[in-house]
Amino acid sequence: MVLSLACTQMKLTPAEAITAATVNAAYSLNAGSGIGTLEPGKLADFVIFDCSDYREIPYWFGVEPARSVYIDGVLAFSVE
């Protein structure tokens, strides 16, 4: 919902909204060295979406496009 609102109401691009919700949010909490991006040594909670382009993600509000969910780098959910 936050990504959708950022793009449709605040006029952020999808890249700006995703950056704001991930790496910028982590650094605002003084936690950027351990979370916020997919890098070796960082905690890895992330979702793989069923879409052809990352720019679709903010516009899927109300629809569940998640293909798989990883928590601590381990597959926790998959539709396959």
Can you walk through the features of this model?
This protein has helices at residues 2-8, 14-21, 23-28, and strands spanning 46-49, 66-71, 74-78. With 80 residues, the protein is of the alpha+beta class. The chain has one domain. Strands 1-2-3 form a 3-stranded antiparallel beta sheet, with no helix packed on it. β2 (66-71) and β3 form a beta hairpin. The mean pLDDT is 93.
Which assembly state applies to the chains in this document?
A: single chain
Q: Per DSSP, what share of the residues sits in E-state strands of 2 or more residues?
A: 15-25%
Q: What integer value in Å does the Rg equal? A: 13 Å
Residue share in helix: 25-40%
Task: Tell me how many strands there are.
Answer: 3
Task: Tell me the span between the first and last alpha carbons.
Answer: 25 Å
Strand order, largest beta sheet: 1-2-3
Pairing-aware structural class of the strands and helices? alpha+beta
Number of helices: 3
Uncertain parts = none
Structural domains: how many: 1
H-E order: HHHEEE
Shape: flat
| Overall pLDDT level | 93
Largest beta-sheet characterization: 3 strands, antiparallel
Topology:
Blueprint: H1 2-8, H2 14-21, H3 23-28, E1 46-49, E2 66-71, E3 74-78
Antiparallel strand pairs: 1-2, 2-3
What can be said about this structure in brief?
26% of the residues lie in helices and 19% in strands.
Any descriptors?
80 residues, 26% helix, alpha+beta, three-stranded antiparallel sheet
